[in-house]
Amino acid sequence: MPPWAHDRARIVEWKLVDVVNFLEKKLRVRGSQSEMGRLWLKVLKAQIPVLFLLTLVVLSTLADSRPNILFCISDDQSYAHTGANGDPVVKTPAFDRVAREGLRFTHAFCDAPTCGPSRSAILTGQPIWRLEEAGNIHSTLPKKFITYTEVLAEAGYSVGYTGKGWSPGRLQAGGRDSNPAGKEFGERRLKPPFKAMRNTDYAGNFDDFLAQVEKDQPFCFWLGTSEPHRGFEAGAGTRTGKDPDKGIVPPIFPDHPVVRSDILDYYVEVEHFDQMVARAMASLERVGQLDNTIVVVTSDHGMPFPRAKASLHDQGSRVPLAIRWPRGIQDSGRTVDACVNLSSLAPTFLAAAKLKIPDMMIAKEMQDLMKGKENGEENAAFIAMERHDGCRKGGKGYPCRAIRTADYLYIRNHTPERWPAGNPDRQFCARDIPFGEVDSSPTKTLIMDNKDKPGFRGFYDLAFAKRPAEELYDLEKDPGQIVNLAGKAEYEDIRQKLASQLRDYLTQTGDPRALGKDAPWDYYPYYGIKRNKSWKVAPKS
């Protein structure tokens, strides 16, 4: 019998006693002589111990049937960079195992290619345009938006996290006094293999969490590494024996030794995350809970490279996703080709725990996909971005929306007059760097410094140049999303269809930009780093 179930049943008992006492008091105050009323109260009082036991049995049975949840999320990892997804160099045995023993998703997408908004969507089960300030990074997540972790905790789950939970931003500004990922476990430290990595022992902190979970109590844990977020230790990849010639350079980057080395350094940090997942799964096996645990391995968005992170194109929005849950997945080892957003995880977790999904969680849960039912409703994912970093005058963002199907990517850029990667003049960037939407890196520097040399201009334009109001890519012919087909006569029908589908979804789900309403994201406070002291968010005129 789980102790927490006993405690909650006792609370129910006390509340029943309070009700009976209240009714007795009311009868006395009113001077009621009703024999029937007194009889009913007597019967109710006599049944309280029975109701206590019944509640205890129900709660215990519920606990036995509810799965645990281990949610593992890396920071800045694109879809392609796991062994199971086809990368020939990076080693990810933990992800590969989860995919092999569960489900591997080939078309999983973050809701926003930027940390805070993506994590807000995961926690709330909502697209970012419904989340007010949480649609921006370096902002907040207002308390009024219910998270799956809160629902689970209220239902008796032990809920905790380590590393990077909801971040970055200022939670207090939204009325929260703790991280919505759960209670923090962060005492364990280790010597990282490379100095650019955090010294957090994420898996060790998970062990500490498990140690405090009461017997038979279900739990939910968020294991969030800071890796592979920049910066990287230069040359780490080659020092681990990785061959730069064997790596795959995405077509949006020049095939150059600097880029290849940069990618290998990124791989090292991807592998560090995977090792933490492997250790956490070993801990679950040790305590006999692996097969009763939903294990999810994913990332918040794509790799920290130009035209990737903070971009709606695939290198920024398409993420690895594998789910293992023997009890809830039919025909494990399957590949799921349906298009899904990470916001669908919140209602999926609650449905698995047999809990009511809050009305505000509009993302579709994935139970049908787990059962092998791809009914055609999952034919598109939707991605969005507002302000990423503060890198335009007055705190302006780069608002855009996208629909991604198996065959096409369509993007609507609402303010094409703005620089998509941030202003090239560093004075307009809070962090005092040019093109501030793109993290500083050897690859970024290479492209910027060589933009006027043969073979580099095209990569520079892809990464930094202004973009048209609409973009359309044929993914079969152009998987790298290089050639914009919007405006081509032969693709006009497809453009219209996707634009209409995107507009309809945004309208149905209340996107202010689709509804022609005031869109406030350019004016919300910015709580990020301000190296440029003159930079500020301009008030709404």
Structure in words:
The protein is of the alpha/beta class and 541 residues long. 33% of the residues lie in helices and 13% in strands. Strand 10 (400-404) and strand 11 form a beta hairpin. Helix 5 (148-154) packs parallel to helix 10 and helix 6 (202-212) runs parallel beside helix 8. The chain is globular, with a radius of gyration of 26 Å. The termini are far apart.
CATH topology term of the largest domain: Alkaline Phosphatase, subunit A
| CA radius of gyration | 26 Å
| Series of H and E elements | HHEHEHHEEHEHHEHEEHHEEEHHEH
Characterize the main sheet.
Answer: 8 strands, mixed
User: CATH homologous superfamily of the largest domain, by name?
Assistant: Alkaline Phosphatase, subunit A
Strand order of the largest sheet: 4-3-5-1-6-7-2-8
Percent helix, as a range, is 25-40%
Regions with little confidence, pLDDT below 50 for 5+ residues: 57-63
Strand content: 5-15%
Attribute tags:
541 residues, alpha/beta, Alkaline Phosphatase, subunit A, 3 domains, 8-stranded mixed beta sheet, 4-stranded antiparallel beta sheet, 14 helices
